[in-house]
Amino acid sequence: MSKLDFSRLKILVVEDHEPTRIFLKEVLGAAGVVHLQIVADVKAALPLLKGKLRDLLICDLNLGEINGQTLIRAVRLNPNFTNRHMPIIVLTGDSKAETVREVLNLGVNRFVSKPATAETVIEAVRAVLERPKAFVTARDYFGPDRRNRQEPGVSGRRSTDLERADDPVPIPKRSDVPWT
Fold this sequence. Notes:
Layout: E1 10-14, H1 18-31, E2 35-39, H2 42-49, E3 56-59, H3 68-77, E4 88-92, H4 97-106, E5 110-113, H5 118-130, E6 135-138, E7 141-144
Parallel strand pairs: 1-2, 1-3, 3-4, 4-5
Antiparallel strand pairs: 6-7
Helix pairs in contact: 2-3
């Protein structure tokens, strides 16, 4: 496995909490990230993502007027979006099981609960960039393969991978996504 060169990464952070923005700037800067943009809301993030390739998006969910889930939908659901395959790490204080399931079903690569340590943030970055997962296109999902392991001797989908019909997580509607 090759060593990740943090100095070549282009990372966008969307975080409304100033102490967390400072924390991420210091942690990522200490790791060697040079190309780092940090904004406080989705309205500022969308223009930065359009037409410019990024290696990684780190975002909170509770971002004020437009939440992080809306940003994730904008990235994953628009087939013409330049950064559609970009890894996404959610860093949030809302670690309820239903929230984790919701964002993973939106196509997030990694979920990190606040308060996070510097080691946790760097491990999440390494995980999504050094060990990328194949992307899956399904009727109601576009994003990284959600399976964490493949059982020996089993090819294709496992029965335990199949979504339950009564899964309470709503499927995002394409009309709910701000493309402009």
